[in-house]
Amino acid sequence: MDSPPQPPSDQPVVVEEAPREPILTLPLPLTAYVVLLAVIHLRVLLPPELENWTIDVFGFIPKRYDSSLVNLQFEGGAGAKVWTFVTYSLLHANLTHLAFNVLWLLPFGSALARRFGAVRFFVFLAVTAAAGALAHLVTHEHAVVPMIGASASVSGAMAAAIRFAFVRGSFLSFSRSDADTAAKVPALPLLQALRDRRIVGFLGVWFALNIIFGVGAIGVESDSAGVAWEAHIGGFFAGLLLFALFDPVPRVRNDDAADASSQDISNGI
């Protein structure tokens, strides 16, 4: 048998290295957001009086908006009535609270950050946080305990991501593409998405977990801490309904929507 031809001895042999997988695969906007949450959480190292002041000024307190109050003053004044609709989502009660929200955000937020880009991603998180605060205000109008936590934004990111997560080639489909491609597949129209049994099943599980177990944004005081699941639902619906306003990817046509979803199932069997 003839041996394979050998390269001339006077020419260097080039050995191609296998492509290396990057250690950090999170998109930059999500990484920046997680780092921001971690840096802000260092407030727990402050003296107790200053930490409590921070929560009072930047946490969301429904009682702050009670027009019947005349003599009761809250830290932060009138400005806190505006910025706390968002700033509460950057604070967390403890490291477990922070870690739980970050872990839930990583898979869905990663896809959303790749799809939206930095500006849309950060504005979207702020809008869903505000929607969660509004839902909490409506259902807890006389609450004095500050609400903190990114759970409304996390819920909004999850809701937005499922608009395209199950489409063929996306990150929850059987025939997933690479991360960037998977994050930019055309989304299903909302009504079409709500007829997908996988999405309906996801919604059912999500609502059950929030109502039964209630995970995420909590009150600060240990003796009255509770789960602000209404804020989760507010953020979730905002993410689901407002997704189209932020989405830069052209929508899948109605006549192609069923094909994009059903082919994924057949290819995965």
TrEMBL record:
Protein name: Rhomboid family intramembrane serine protease
InterPro entries in UniProt: Peptidase_S54_rhomboid_dom, Rhomboid-like_sf
Record GO cellular component, one term: membrane
GO MF annotation terms: serine-type endopeptidase activity
Species of origin: Bradyrhizobium rifense
Membrane protein topology class: Multi-pass membrane protein
Transmembrane spans: 82-106, 118-138, 144-166, 199-220, 226-246
SUPFAM superfamilies on file: Rhomboid-like
